Amino acid sequence: MAVSLLALSGCTTLTSSNIAVSQTGDRPAPTVDTGGTDDAAVGRREHPRIIAANGGVYSDRPAEIMVARIVGRLLAAAEQPNAQFQVTILDSSEVNAFALPGGYIYVTRGILALASDTSELAAVLAHEIAHVTLRHARARTDRTRTTAIVDRVITSVFGGDTSTDATASRTRESLASFSQNQELEADREGIKIAGKAGYDPQAAARFLGVMSRFATFSAGAGKSEAGFLSSHPSTPARIQKALDTAQAMFGKPGVGEIDRDGYLESIDGLTFGDSPAQGTIIGRRFLHPASKFTFTVPPGYTLQNSQGAVVGVAGDGEAVRFDSAEVQPNVTLTDYLKSGWIAGLKTDSVTSRTINGIETASGLAQTDQWFFRVSVMRLDGQVYRFIFAAKSDGTRFAQGAGDTLESFRRTTSSDLAAIHKVAIHVVKANSGDTADSLARQMKALSRGTELFYIINDLYPGDPIEVGEDYKIVRMQ
Prior knowledge:
Helix content is 38%, strand content 22%. It is of the alpha+beta class. The strands form four sheets. The protein has a seven-stranded antiparallel beta sheet with strand order 9-10-11-15-14-13-12. The longest helix has 18 residues, at 203-220. It is globular.
C-alpha cells in the first residue's frame, strides 16, 4: 500500500539524448508532439496521478541507465529524432508497462524482474513507444469519457468520491484498454522498431510466453495481475503471430542483440514483490515502516497488498479493505464518517474513542446485500480506514472488526526488525549445478522453486550453462 505519495519532491533526471528517466517523477516531463497540443496537457495532468497510484518512483541507478540507453536506441530506430520521452520506473511489483499521450512511458520494477535480457525489455518499451507514435494512447484516453457508469457503480457501493477512489481509477483504466487491433498493430510496429535498433526481434514472442506463465503462477497465488498481463493477453495465437512477424521482417532466429549478462548485472539487487516502503504482510499482520503503524486481521483472513489498499478476504464471504483518505485537520473523525462517503451509514451508530493513544471513530452501515463495520483512525495527521463487509452481521463478525481496530498501533523496533527486503540476486552456475539445484535456493519462499523456473524461462530438468548467470529471489 502506497501512503501519502502525492507529496513528492527533490526531482533529478537522468538524460540520454532526448530521453529523461525520472527518479522522483514530480518534474513536468518533456513531451513528444504526436499531432495535437492536447496530448502534452493530458500527459502532464495524469503523470503525477500515475506516480501516486503506482507506488511512487523506483530509484535504481544501474536500471535507470540501462533503460535510458535502450529507449535512446529505440527512438532512433523509430525515426523520432526530435521526439522527447520521459520513462519512469514505478515502484510496483505488478508486471506492467503503459504509455500516456505526450511521450510518457512507464515500466514497473516487476516487469524488470521478470525479463531476462536487454532484448526482452526492449520489446516491451518498443511496444509502448509504438502505442504513442501510432496515437493509440490518445484514443484510449478519449474512451475514458464514456465510462461514467463505472463511477455510478462505485458510488452506489461505497458512496465514495470516484475521482480519488483507487478501485474506480483501476476500473476506468481497464475499460480504456487498447483494442485487440491496436495491440496487434503495436506488436508489429514494436517488433520492427526493436529489430531495427539491433535487438533480437524474437524477444517479443519469448517474453509474451514468460508473462503468460507468470500470469498463471500469480492466479494460483490468489493475486490479480491487473496491468500488462490483462491488457496484453499472451495467447498462443498472439505469440505465434509475433514469431511470424519477426521472421517475416528479419529472417531466421539468431539475429540481434540479447545481452543477457549486461541486463542481469543492471537488475542485480532489484526489489522483488511488495516494497517494504509500501508495507509488509507477515501472516495476518500488516506493517508500514514509513508511516509507522501495524495491525492484525482476524483468523481466516488472507491479506493482499495493492497500490491503493490492503485487502483481506475470508473464506466465509467476509472481506476487509484498509486504505487512507485525505481529511482536513479541522474535520473531526465522526463528521468525516458521516460525510457521505460510505453508503447506508447509520448515523446513530457512530461513536468515537481513543485506542492505543490513537483517535478513532466507528460506525455501522447497511445496503441491500451487505453489512459494513467501518472505522477511521487519525495517526500523525493522516487518516486511515477499515471497511469490513459481510453478507450478514453477527457476533463473530463484530468481534473480528473490533479486534482489528484494537490492534491498530504504532510500530516498535521489534516490529520493524521482522521486516526483510526480498530482492533479485544474480548467481553464476558452477560445475555440477542444475536448474533444479539452483531452484532449491528459493525454497524458503512460498512456491519459490516454481517461481525460479518462470523468472529464468526454464523448466524442471532443463540443462543450464556452467558459468552463466541466473536469477534467484531471496530475503536480505
